[in-house]
Design goal:
The complex is a heterodimer. In chain A, 73% of the residues lie in helices and 0% in strands. Chain A is an all-alpha fold. Chain A has a single domain, classed as Orthogonal Bundle (ABC transporter involved in vitamin B12 uptake, BtuC). In chain A, helix 4 packs antiparallel against helix 5, helix 10 packs across helix 11 and helix 14 packs across helix 15. Chain B has a domain of 168 residues: P-loop containing nucleotide triphosphate hydrolases (Rossmann fold). Chain B contains eight helices and twelve strands. In chain B, the strands form three sheets. Chain B has a six-stranded mixed beta sheet with strand order 6-9-10-3-11-12, sandwiched between helices. Chain B has a four-stranded antiparallel beta sheet with strand order 2-1-4-5, with helices on one face. In chain B, 49% of the residues are buried. The chains are: A mainly alpha, B alpha/beta. The structure holds adenosine-5'-diphosphate (ADP) and magnesium ion (MG).
Chain lengths: 402, 249
């Protein structure tokens, strides 16, 4: 039988055969330029191990939540309550573990689990109104923004609740040490190779087109080099007055696990597929037999879970919960998602892109702080970057449609 | 022989608009029933009741003689009914493979089996002989004919007992339309029952065993194709009257 589809499938040439997302490559390029520029402007401070280590920690809270926001936006929704929910969950986790009379003095594990459950519950609440009652997510989560910010104040009467249990505070500022960092790095590299081989073998077995061997080497080689560089940098920053390397910060381990999991989930599971289908054409998703309401609630539950996880990291890092914790965080998270190529119209976005978006925004912030640029100007710059990204996305999409 | 599908006395209102008014149609295995009527006659609404997209206000649906409740698209699929919607109902941001399998993905454990789905999509789309250079680009970037073939591929992959085709050739050229015609004949020979909605009288006369004409949400009548002329059917569509020489089939 003549195979019409296969016959017309022409192999891709040159750069295209790398099979990369152009937008992500471009973002990576922008990131490199920004890093080099800051390195020069700060006289060598920016790319020092200390600063890169700090930068990675500073990226954690947005990094943990941004993947959830990508899915929310892909599903044509928005979550404005992230900052307030983070504040509220952090406060509850603090109240549960801080010693009496201020708190209940429960174990940190119990506090963490209850805090995460609370986040999931709040997400389910948001999602319920959106999915089953058709209330616009903008309104539901705007209400959440008001409710949970002020509830945070009310439950602690405006006080700062501290200190956290010692083990808990490691979530925010601890690190895993040199050996574990090497193990994580080597596992990461092994995984990259395993993944590449597995994919290629499967596609060859099914006689599907694969990218040329040299392209596999380039793409996976670069990924492995990144992993190696990351391990070396994290181990180059030592505890003060010693030469004991710190290794990867625990909040960064959490962030990486979350992002890798979400990237896998969006690409390789039914849930991820359905979120994109709902964003692309909700009616088609419904007619295909997808339970769009349930998926929508689950998307918000995931967002709530990630927000609570970020709350734990944030409170642990501060070793306290304050009434204002997480204020305006939703804006940074949405900005990172959009800068990372997530389209507000829904149906399009990637976890990797958003992770790069989060890294770019925190790099800009970190670099400008090092340069002594006042907060007002930092925010103006971030606003301009956001506009530029949206403009680029719009043009990019228009060209692709044409 | 029991009909594959019977829809009896179906009525459905959209606000003040009586879109379906006491409509009854039937379909036998290996039969093609053409549904004809002006725009707004209620054809799409009728088949959406069968596909689970809408629920009728009143009426009864029987599948192979058994009364069934079709409340969701899943219910309809479960009874072996597949639908190609007039607007195609594709997720434009997803590729052809994802669309063919949407809602019924092949998985290994929790993981989508992309390679197998790609292979099977290719096989099914080859059957339609419509050229699709890559199955891995978003269907938004495809031509009308390619999109239409993805929607058709999606419906025929799952081995339906009853296939609903709502204007399946609207975006196709003459050559592609001919291929869809061949496909309809092949499926009919396999015993699939097909509701075919089309604006093209020639196509319907070529493919349909019976023709049901609708007007203003009501059935004008059902006739056996060999017993009527184009003018008879046009009279039913435009005038809403049965041909003089025939009782309703
Ligand atoms: N979702 C809907 N809401 C309100 N009215 C609708 C809807 N779908 C169809 N209608 C109305 O029902 C009638 C029948 O439409 P339709 O079934 O699409 O006709 P056809 O497919 O025969 O052209 C029209 O008057 C149309 O405006
Ligand atoms: Mg119609």
């Amino acid at each position: 039988m003549q195979n019409t589809v296969q016959d017309t499938q022409k192999p891709r040439q040159g750069f295209a055969s790398l099979g990369l997302d152009i937008r992500q490559v471009l973002m990576l390029g922008v990131l490199v330029v920004v890093w080099i520029a800051f390195e020069i402007l700060t006289g060598g401070l920016f790319l020092s191990p200390v600063n890169l280590w700090n930068l990675s920690v500073q990226t954690a809270v947005v990094g943990i939540t941004v993947g959830g926001m990508v899915l929310v936006i892909v599903a044509r929704q928005i979550d404005l309550s992230v900052g307030s929910v983070l504040g509220f969950c952090a406060m509850i986790m603090a109240l549960l573990q801080v010693s009496p009379p201020l708190g209940l003095g429960l174990s940190w594990v119990v506090a963490l689990i209850l805090g995460l459950a609370l986040g999931v519950l709040i997400g389910a609440f948001n999602g319920y109104w959106v999915a089953y009652w058709g209330v616009p997510a903008f309104v539901v989560t705007l209400a959440g923004l008001l409710i949970f910010r002020n509830a945070t104040f009310v439950v602690a009467s405006g006080r700062t609740v501290a200190p956290m249990k010692q083990t808990f505070s490691l979530l925010g500022a601890g690190s895993i040490g040199a050996e574990a960092t090497w193990i994580v790095g080597l596992l990461g590299m092994a995984f990259i190779i395993y993944q590449a081989l597995g994919n290629r073998r499967s596609r060859l077995k099914h006689r599907l087109p694969v990218r040329p061997l040299w392209a596999e080497w380039v793409v996976n080689g670069v990924l492995i080099l990144f992993t190696l560089a990351f391990v070396l940098v994290m181990n180059a920053y030592t505890y003060p007055g010693t030469n004991i390397p710190r290794g990867i910060p625990i909040p960064v381990v959490i962030t990486l696990v979350v992002l890798i999991f979400l990237a896998w989930m969006t690409r390789s599971t039914r849930f991820g597929r359905y979120v994109f289908a709902m964003g692309g054409n909700p009616e088609a998703a419904r007619l295909a037999g997808i339970n769009v309401r349930r998926i929508m609630v689950q998307v918000f539950m995931l967002m709530g879970f990630l927000t609570a996880l970020a709350a734990a990291v944030q409170a642990a890092r501060l070793n306290a919960a304050t009434a204002g914790l997480g204020t305006n965080l939703e804006l940074s998270v949405i900005a990172a998602a959009v800068i990372g190529g997530t389209a507000l119209a829904g149906g399009s976005g990637t976890i990797v892109g958003a992770a790069l978006g989060a890294l770019l925004t925190s790099s800009l912030q970190n670099g400008m702080v090092l340069m002594g640029i006042p907060t007002e100007w930092q925010n103006i710059v971030l606003g301009i970057v956001l506009l530029a990204a949206v403009f680029y996305n719009t043009v990019f999409l228009r060209n692709r449609r044409a | 022989m029991t009909p594959l599908v019977e829809m009896n006395n179906i009525s459905l209102r959209f606000g003040g608009n009586q879109a379906l008014n006491d409509v009854s149609v039937s379909l036998y295995p290996g039969e093609v029933v053409g549904l004809l009527g002006h725009n707004g006659a209620g054809k799409s609404t009728l088949i959406k009741v069968l596909s689970g997209a809408y629920q009728a206000d009143s009426g009864q649906i029987l599948v192979e003689g058994q009364e069934v409740q079709i409340k969701t698209p899943q219910d309809s699929q479960r009874y072996g009914i597949e639908t190609i919607y007039q607007n195609l109902a594709l997720a434009d941001n997803l590729d052809a493979v994802a669309n063919v399998f949407l809602g019924r993905e092949k998985v290994r454990g929790a993981v989508l089996d992309e390679d197998v789905m790609e292979l099977e999509s290719r096989t099914i789309l080859d059957r339609l002989r419509i050229r699709i250079p890559s199955l891995r680009v978003p269907v938004a970037n495809m031509s009308g004919g390619q999109r239409q073939s993805v929607a058709i591929g999606r419906a025929i992959y799952f081995k339906a007992k009853c296939l609903i085709m709502d204007e399946p050739t609207a975006a196709l050229g003459p050559e592609e339309t001919r291929k869809v015609g061949e496909l309809v004949k092949a499926l009919k020979a396999e015993g699939v029952g097909i509701f075919l909605i089309s604006h093209d009288l020639h196509d319907v006369f070529d493919l349909a065993d019976r023709i049901t004409v609708m007007k203003n949400g009501k059935v004008v009548g059902t006739v056996n194709t060999p017993e009527v002329s184009h003018d008879d059917v046009l009279g039913m569509i435009i005038g809403g009257v049965m041909p003089k020489h025939l009782p309703s089939a």
